[in-house]
Design brief:
With 282 residues, this protein is an alpha/beta fold. It is built from 9 helices and 8 strands.
Length: 282
């Protein structure tokens, strides 16, 4: 990798600085219709509406307002529909989604590890499952064997993301060392991250296996990144704002709804629509 390019990149690429919050609610630049549709229903009240925010992380949660918004969004919609509650799903950067949920501007975030959102209220039932791997340029032969093996690598991380307890601690310890850590911000940073690895402006990028596979389907085979080994796996959740009075109730309603969807077989049908084996989410 051409290490001198790192400092040049930091000067030129404003998206690579961990900025992001504020902005109270509106966003979803990809699809304004996702914002307008639920709000246009005059019958909606705060008691019958849940607003969830996240950056696109397909197939777990995808572009708001698209034909396939992600299996976790579909599961949340159907689970809450059982108790007469509508889900409004909005895209924004992950750091901003966490910030707005923490402030109580939205009800919660979707696609969270417990380490992403300390202090948030989590359902007892996860809505998905994530397996994080390390990805490199396809010509690389480097393999991940623990954070010690990152010593001579530049790691690219997305602002606000949690990856694993060990890697999160490593990023925190070295976040002011641009030769070791680059932080990427923005509402949809995955394609930019892939580009930076492909152009050898950074060495290693942690990402969910299903998310990377989903994204790579849209790219020519010669531009696909290489897995350098597994990092961490964990259930993923819809997490609710600690500053919303309804948070505990919403967490319980979602857990009950997910259990009902699993019992009926509907949960498996939803995830299968996204090319995921239901056994992968157990």
């Amino acid at each position: 990798m051409f290490k001198p390019l790192v400092l040049f990149l930091l000067l030129l690429c404003t998206a690579c600085s961990p900025k992001d919050p504020p902005a109270a609610v509106p966003e979803t630049p990809e699809s304004d219709t996702a914002l307008a549709a639920p709000a246009a229903n005059a019958a909606e009240t705060p008691d019958s509406l849940v607003v969830l925010a996240a950056d696109p992380w397909c197939p777990h949660n995808c572009e708001a307002g698209s034909e396939a918004e992600g299996y976790m969004v579909d599961i949340a919609r159907e689970a809450f529909a059982r108790v007469g509650v509508t889900v409004q799903y909005i895209n924004m950067s992950w750091a901003r989604a966490l910030y707005q949920a923490e402030a109580g501007d939205v009800d919660g975030v979707i696609g969270a590890f417990t380490g992403d959102a300390p202090g948030f209220l989590f359902p007892t039932e996860p809505a998905g499952y994530s397996r994080i791997e390390l990805f490199t340029h396809p010509d690389s032969t480097w393999m991940y064997t623990g954070t010690g093996s990152l010593r001579d690598q530049t790691l690219l991380a997305i602002n606000g993301y949690s990856y694993s307890p060990d890697l999160d601690a490593y990023i925190k310890a070295h976040q002011d060392e641009p030769e070791r850590i680059l932080i990427l911000s923005g509402p949809s940073p995955l394609n930019r991250a892939i580009q930076l690895v492909w152009e050898r402006r950074t060495d290693v990028f942690p990402e969910d296996r299903e998310v990377m596979n989903w994204t790579m389907r849209e790219r020519p085979a010669e531009t696909r990144l290489r897995s350098a080994g597994p990092l961490y796996e964990s259930p993923i959740y819809v997490a609710f704002s600690p500053h919303k009075a309804t948070a505990q109730k919403r967490a319980e309603q979602l857990s009950e709804g997910i259990r009902a969807l699993k019992a009926s077989g509907r949960f498996d049908q939803i995830v299968a629509r996204y090319g995921i084996e239901p056994s992968e989410l157990r």
